[in-house]
Amino acid sequence: MFDSLFPYTAAEEVTFFVDLILPIPVPKLFTYRVPRDMAGLLKIGARVIVPFGKSRVMTAIVARMHNHPPAKYQARYVLELLDEYPLVTSYQLELFNWMAEYYMCCVGEVMNVALPSGLKITSQSKVQYNPDFDYPELLTKEEWDLLKELQKHPALSYEELGRLVGEVHVPAMIKSLVGKRAVIVFEEVREKYVPKMVRKIRLHANYENREQLLMLINRLEKLPKQQEVVMRYLRYVPVQINPATNQKGLDKTVLNQDDELSQSSLQTLIKNEVFETFEVIQPRFSDTGITPQVEIRLTDAQQGAINKVTTLFQERDVVLFHGITGSGKTEIYIRLIQQALEGGSQVLYLLPEIALTTQIVVRLQKVFGDKMGIYHSKFSDNERVEVWKGIISGQYQFVIGVRSAVFLPFDNLGLIIVDEEHETSYKQHDPAPRYHARDVAIMLAHWQKAKVLLGSATPSVESYYHAQQKRYGLVELFQRYGQATLPNIRLVNVRQERKQKTMKNEFSSALLQELEMNLDRKEQSILFQNRRGYSPYLQCEDCDWTSECPNCAVSLTYHMRAAELRCHYCGHKEEVPRLCPVCGSTKVKTVGFGTEKIEDQLQILFPQARIQRMDLDTTRTKNAYQQIIKEFEEGQVDILVGTQMITKGLDFDNVSLVGIFDADRLIHYPEFRATERAFQMITQVSGRAGRRADRQGKVLIQTSNPEQAILQKVLENDYFGLYQEEVTERQNFNYPPFSRIIKLTIRHQEQVISRQAANKLAADLAEKLGSNRVLGPEEPLVERIRNQFLYDILIKLERDKINIKAVKAFIQECITTILTDKGLRAVSVVIDVDPL
After folding, report:
1. This model's pTM is above 0.70
2. Residue 540 annotated as part of some ligand binding site
3. Helix (H) or strand (E) holding 743
4. 814 annotated ligand-binding residue
């Protein structure tokens, strides 16, 4: 407690200070003075409001408390305390500091990402009439009308004033009125989080008594509508039997659900004080209506895997669970979660994609009911705040969420499950901190003495290497659940089919035949193309013009439904040209294909089929994922077309066919992890097929080169063979897991300055680290984004025999030298530790 640390009496003049984390990218904490009336109330981890700069106010977190004023500036006062109890735990503060150090960013940047927006205050400009104003003759007619409107209210926002006076130039008028000292403009600070309120109704306390209630009913005999409203209330709330039930009341909508007359009668009864209205806070995650079914049936293989995991947890903090697709990993997770909760610990279950939460949440709710919290970015700010506060209050002991869930205020974690641990979605790319949720989860578990289970059918090379080196425990399960078998995978040579002219648009004859047979059998199909939109770009056949983004060095993707060209990097949009903008030719054609084009062609090829698409364009709204998956599960969709979001852990019994387009593009990506990722993605999407024991699924992979080694390993489901080749090659060229990589991206609007800064930074780094450790600078694949020219520098550092903390400090020094150079100040440097 703050007051116990610094006791004082009324006779003593002791000034207290706090060091605060502010949500801004500055390396140090800021010290503020504590008002005397707050001295005994502040706690580490609580939020406060403080002034910053000339006119800004911010939410800050108390990190330290002391009585030492800052040496180099005058401390300003804390304005307001937001929390009676801390909303950020000591474990979270430790995590924030570790992430800032490890990912080479500022602790304020970590705080800004960690806290949901609903826990950060906002300020809104308000205008009020100045009572000391005595010069009305200075005002125009419009200004006088606005001032008269202001006199009717304590204060109004710019938007509210605009609505009242119907004037589009309100900001300019207010500026003029401020100059004439007719109004006062101030910042109203308010918290974003607003509890959900429900209006309810109850009988006035005078009628809780049985005798008084009977007298009321008799008195209303001549007013049958009003009497019916009272009787309806009593049917739901048995006041005459138990008067205490009246205090909880009844939702107002229940009483006026029938007709306008009953609504009018209810209003009259409220006016006559027979009923009274009141508001209560209603949790946004109310009862799901799902009755928990605790019993989970496990096969002998699954039970054996659980026993191995439990045994390994006695000697290892992290266990890698390598289970093939369809092996029943979720049931194993459920049993382990139950064991942890029964032991009184908290559990965090991480998933890489929101799309995955949709299906798994329903399965978990059947076991855990409303005791489980859900946390992801599609939820509103208010919903996320309620989960955050629900963990602190003990309402949720178990939370399932995406990568940002690692920031939740757990203080008693017993188990963290990282499902599909190999997925790149766990890595945040922008803004800082550019963290990997899997690695952060392992550190979080370390501080809370918790265990971590990493699960995947295709583990990352790094995780499998750590398991082989005995840093992690390893449990493997190579048997599908319920006697189901792995699908039959077939490679289709599209180069050969094109020569034979048996292709129809992007579809091989083999895939079309299988789709048709699947439709006849009333079975479902999934088609995977890892590129959204209709076509990657437009091209003129006469002059070779291509549609390019004016802000980025990429082509504009054609989206047919929206009838626009769109940049997937900066969001720039253009209308689709009818003629070539360069030569005026009418021969403008689409090149390549995305999910939208496949969907369009399917509707032509199979007009009777029910087709749905799941990609970023069709899942922008909050409940879009759930709706698409629900329709597919219920058999309302025959063919589901999608990007990589359909590859991850979805479980559909009736899917017997998977088609994979453009496999070569996945394999031949210029990046050292390309082979690993292609194997993971193809294997994962293949695993969606044939999950029932009574039939084997089929997978067709369309490729121009079926002899590629990676595709042969997919056919044989040879993960270990892939791992051995990958780990050997990475050791030869000193790539992870044998080294650590830090990527620096230099950005500037002028290419010359960006190149100059990158060359200087690389030279400064190489001078001390050596040219063998510093690679570049090189232009990335996309060398210009949002009108900024980019250059990458890769720093490869040995895992052992190097002081990584000292190296990071040196890198920061070199970056600071660049950023303080007078000619290079406008340059920005993005630091990405452990890039993917």
Report:
1. yes
2. yes
3. strand 739-748
4. no
122-191: CATH, from 1.10.10, 1.10.150, 1.20.1250, 3.30.160 = 1.10.10
pLDDT at res. 293: 59
Mean pLDDT (the chain) is 88
Contact at 8 Å (CB) between 337 and 415?
A: yes
For 630-682, write each residue's pLDDT tens digit: 899 889 999 999 998 887 767 788 999 999 999 998 888 888 999 999 999 99
Whether 300-471 and 488-532+607-727 share one fold: the answer is yes
pLDDT in tens, 532-571: 899 999 999 999 999 999 999 999 999 998 899 999 999 8
105 is in an annotated binding site: no
451-456, strands of its sheet edge to edge: 372-375, 398-401, 346-350, 413-419, 451-456, 318-323, 473-477
Does the annotation place 106 within a ligand binding site? no
Whether residue 150 contacts residue 129, with contact meaning beta carbons closer than 8 Å, is answered with yes
Q: Return the C-alpha torsion angle 56, 60, 62, 65, nearest 10.
A: -10
- Return the CATH class of domain 488-532+607-727: alpha beta
Provide φ and ψ at 765, rounded to 5°: -70, -45
Top-level class of domain 739-833: alpha beta
At 502 the three-state DSSP class reads coil
Whether residue 543 is annotated as binding a ligand: the answer is yes
On whether 552 is known to bind a ligand per the annotation, the reply is yes
How many angstroms separate the first and last alpha carbons of the chain? 43
Ranges of the chain whose pLDDT falls below 50: 1-11
CATH of domain 2-86: 3.40.1440
